[in-house]
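Backbone geometry:
***
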Amino acid sequence: MAPISKECDYLVIGGGSGGLASARRASGQWRAKTIAVESSRLGGTCVNVGCVPKKVTWNAAAIAETLHEAKAYGFSIKETAPFDWTTFKHKRDAYVSRLNGIYEKNLEKDKVEWLHGRAHFLSKNEVEVVLHDGSKQTIRAKNILIATGGHPNIPKDIPGSELGITSDGFFELEKRPEKVALVGAGYIAVEMAGMFRHLGSETHLFIRHDTFLRSFDPMIQETITAEYERQGIIIHRQSSQQKLQKDPTTGKLTLHYSDSTTKSSTLELDCLLWAIGRAPEVEDLALPNAGVKQSEKGHIIADEYQNTNIPHIYSLGDVSGNIELTPVAIAAGRLLANRLFGGPAHKNSKLDYSNIPSVVFAHPEVGSIGLSEPDARKKYGDDNIKVYNTSFTAMYYAMMDSDADKAPTKYKLVVEGEEERVVGLHILGAGCSEMLQGFGVAVKMGARKRDFDACVAIHPTSAEELVTLK
């Protein structure tokens, strides 16, 4: 049977948050004939194996923390059974499935045609899609967006590395591992280590240096690393992994490693999770057929307008490697659709990639927007930078009997010049994820320290400390 041929104004390859936001804007608002292609479940990494199920699991871990702390507030809570990981997992899966359905309904509402299959380029304007039933369709498009996202890396030079899982595999676990190791120092490793620990697993975190979250301000790095140790997470600094083995009888894993305290040791585990970075999902796109340029790491090279080197081919999101956050991809996708199909009023539409807030759902939460203190000093010079810090114990912990049960709260404001324009805001403590959104607006608007000072504090809150800094 010959392939079916179609034509459209806009072809979106990738059904993640960014691609679908762009497709829906193009079709629903601007009436461009739009086709979207996705080989897996709609919603991409964020909905299926990222932000959404991660936050649900973080909520469960936060409840476990609260149950532990409830005694200090006069509650006597007896757990009749340990956390039911299996029941929770299936309920979380059902929630994600409902979201998949909502995404599909939204595509129908905005008249976006959705093809369930795998796409590869035949030429600059033509793509072949191999559908899941084995049939093929050829699509000729005036404009093509590549928004295929990425996938987790597994080390290739460590024997037995395939015996471990990645963040994708975390959401497939049917039961809680009693003893788990995570390798990595980024937000995925840190978030999942916290969730494992507070849901009852003995947790080991292997990092290459002495702190983790190394792209964040040093205050964040040092405080959260120390706090994780206080909470009982075992951190292996300056570590490397030699090999991973599996006992065919028991199913247990044995990790051979070195760290700052030993040159050669082993650790028996139920599960090992690799969180060593992500790679762009480009392997079978046949990009050379379209002449699309890639970086050394395989990311599609795109400018601030999402243009690749080929006219009418665009790229955004994780596949381009520029600030790999779901809301960034969504915003860039919508603005791109406006520029392509919204007429002269939108001819310069593009995303401003500066001052984008980000949060790590650690225990406690971490929030950051703008420059770290070292980066600010490097950009503006030491004489032009002033730093305001505060460190305190949140009122929530006032009822705790022991200081060992009290988590830290620390905030830092980095300001520049005589006007003391805020160029960096870094917060760590309970509630930071919700707090940062509002303060992020202020920083994005160019707020000065005096603007923070002029805002009357809301008492008693932790957030008030940011508008009373001395």
The chain has a mean pLDDT of 97. The chain has three domains: 4-57+85-152+279-346, 161-276, 358-467. The longest strand covers residues 136-146. The two ends are 74 Å apart (CA to CA).
